[in-house]
Amino acid sequence: MATTGTHRRRYPKMMLGETVSVAIETFRVSKVRFILTSLGMVIGTASLILVVTIGLTGKQYLLQQIQNIGSNMMVAEYAGGGILRDATSDWLTLDDLNAVREQVPGISNASPMIEFHDRVAVPGRNERDILGLGVSWQYRYVRNLNVLSGRFFDEDDIQARNKVAVMTDKLAATLYGSEPAEGRIIKLSGLPFTVIGTFRERVDTFGQTEISEDTILVPYTVARYFTNTDQVKQLFFSVSDSNEVPRATKEIREVLQSRHRPESVYRVDNLTQLLSVASQMANTLSTVLLLISVLTLIVSGVGIMNIMLATVNARTREIGVRKAVGATPSAIRAQFLTEAVLISLSGGIVGILVGLALPFSVRFITNYRVPVSGWSVIIAIAVSSFVGVLFGTAPATRAAKFDPIESLRYE
Questions:
Q1: Which domain holds residue 348?
Q2: Alpha-carbon distance 91 to 280, whole Å?
Q3: 215, exposed or middle or buried, with CB in 10 Å at 0-12, 13-18, 19+?
Q4: What is the 3-state secondary structure (H, E, C) of 30-83?
Q5: Partners of 21 in the beta sheet?
Q6: Is there a domain that residue 265 lies in?
Q7: Which three-class secondary structure state does DSSP give residue 265?
Q8: pTM beyond 0.85
C-alpha cells in the first residue's frame, strides 16, 4: 500500500516531466514552425517593455522640465480689489516680503520683482525694447536660472546699490553679436549699468514666464528709483522641500491677506498642481500604450491558437496511437496545452530580453539612465503565460476529444 501511495504521488511529477520532454522534442523536430509561431510573442512582449520604458522616460523628462522651472517656487501677486476712492490699489510691498520671511517657516529664498520697460541702443545697431526686472540675488535660486557667463549680482551689490546688470544670452547676442557682454556699459533710464553676466532659463518657457528674450535683471534696490515707490509686482519664494510647498503657499496667502484690506485679493501660485497633472497625463499615456501592447500579445495568441489547431490536425494519427496505448484525454489535453504555453512563454522571455536590451544599451553608450520598470517584466511574463493558456485551451480540448479509432484511420 505504501508503495502504491508513493507511486501515486510521483506519477503527476513524472507525467509533467514527460509532457514537457515530448513538447521540447516536438519543437526540435519542427524548429521553423516553432520559431515563426513564437515570433509574434517576441514582438509583443518586446513592445510592451519598450512602451513602458518610453512612458517612464517621457514622464521623467516632463517632470524634470517642470522642476527646472522651479518646483519649489511660489509666486505671490496682487489680483485686484481694495481700491480706494483715489484709485489707489493695494499693491504688495517690500515689507510684505519681510513679513512672510519672518512668519512663514521653511522659506529658503525670497525675492521681490519690480518691473520697468526701457529702450537700449548700441552704437551701430538699432534700438531695442527691453524688459527690466529689479530682483534680489536670491531670485537666481528661486527661478533656478543658469548663469552662462560672468556672474550674478550678490548681496554686496544689493546693499551697495551697485549699477550692475545681467541679461539673457539671446539679448546679449542681439546687442553684441559674438563679442562678450561682460564689462559693457548699458544705459537704463539714463543711468549707466555695467553688464556682469548672461543667463537663461534652464527650460525654454517660450515667453510664458516673467522672463522674455529681451530681459535685463538689476538689483531691486536700484530699480526702486525707477518707480519711486515701495510697491512690487510680484514676490517670489522657495522652500527647500517640495513637500512643504502646499503648506507654505497657504501660509503666505494668509500673511499677505492679514496685512492688507479685507477686500483685496492676493494670488499665490506654485507648480505643485502642474506637476500632479503632468504626472497623471504621463501615467494615462503609458496605460494606453500598454493596452495597445497587450492587444498585440492577444493577436499573437490568436496566431498561436491557429497554428496549434493546424498542429492538432496534422498529428491526428499520433493522438490516436497515444490513446490506443492508454493515454487519457486529460494527458492529451495537458500535452497540447503545455506546448502552447511553452511557445508563448519562450517567445515572451526572448521578447523581454530584446525589450530590455535597448534601454540598457543606452545606459552604456550615454550617461543618461533610462528608467526600466520591474513591473513591466512581471506583466510581460504573466501575460505571455496567460495568452498561452487562454489560446492553447481550444486546440488542446479538441485533441482530447478525438476518437482513437477514427484517429488511427486518419490519413
A1: 18-65+277-409
A2: 36
A3: buried
A4: CHHHHHHHHHHHHHHHHHHHHHHHHHHHHHHHHHHHHHHHHCCEEEEEEEECCC
A5: none
A6: yes
A7: strand
A8: no
Task: From 343, 352, 350, 353, select the one nearest 388 (Cα to Cα).
Answer: 343
d(CA 188, CA 350): 67
Q: Among all chains, which residue has been given the C-alpha cell 507654505?
A: 248
Examine the fold and report which residue of 270, 290, 320 is the final residue of a domain before the chain moves on: 270
Q: Beta partners for 265?
A: 80
Sequential pLDDT tens for the chain (411 residues):
444 444 444 444 446 566 666 666 666 767 777 777 778 788 878 877 887 777 777 777 776 766 666 668 889 999 887 665 554 678 899 999 999 999 999 999 999 999 999 988 776 666 788 999 999 999 999 888 999 999 999 999 999 999 999 999 999 998 888 889 999 999 888 889 999 999 998 766 544 578 888 999 999 999 988 877 788 999 999 998 878 888 999 999 999 999 988 888 899 988 776 667 777 777 787 777 777 777 777 777 887 788 778 777 777 777 777 777 777 888 888 877 888 888 888 888 888 888 888 777 776 777 667 777 777 788 778 878 888 888 888 888 887 787 766 666 555
Angle at 397 between CA 393 and CA 400, to 5 degrees: 140
Say if residue 259 is in the same domain as residue 296.
Answer: no
Residue with cell 555695467: 194
CA atoms within 13 A on the CB side of 215: 18
Q: Give the DSSP letter string of 167-227.
A: EEHHHHHHHHTTS--TT-EEEETTEEEEEEEEEEESS--TT-SS--TTEEEEEHHHHHHHH
284 in the same domain as 234: no
- How far is Cα 183 from Cα 164, in angstroms, rounded to an integer? 10
Cell numbers at 106, concatenated: 521653511
